[in-house]
Design brief:
With 109 residues, the protein is mainly α. The protein has one domain. 85% of the residues lie in helices and 0% in strands. The protein has three helices and no strands. α2 (37-67) packs antiparallel against α3. The radius of gyration is 17 Å and the shape is elongated. The termini are far apart.
């Protein structure tokens, strides 16, 4: 039970953190001049990379807990790992989009 609660809290924190960062970034884009867009995209890319690294650490921790657990609810933990994997994949896709936008801005100043 304690393991499930810990995993659930980690997933919630990751989700909320990602939403807050994305919302803040996109709300600030409305008021930013185009010349600052490159800097903001670069900052956003860096934040996404940090989130991705953090999510990878959580995933490794969950996998470690599964291998060292005698918990009867392994399928629930596997489902939570799947959720984190989806979040990681979504972050990677978004990161790739940001990198493409950055390269477009660099090539067309």
């Amino acid at each position: 039970m304690k393991l499930k609660l810990t995993i659930l809290i980690l997933i919630i924190v990751i989700s909320i953190g990602s939403i807050i960062i994305a919302t803040d970034f996109f709300s600030n884009l409305k008021y930013v001049e185009i010349s600052n867009q490159y800097e903001n995209l670069l900052k956003y890319k860096n934040e996404l990379e940090k989130i991705n690294e953090y999510n990878q650490e959580i995933l490794k921790d969950l996998e470690y807990q599964i291998t060292n657990s005698d918990d009867a609810n392994i399928s629930q933990i596997n489902n939570e790992i799947d959720v984190i994997n989806r979040v990681i994949i979504e972050n990677k896709l978004e990161l790739e989009e940001i990198i493409i936008k950055l390269s477009q801005i660099e090539s067309n100043p």
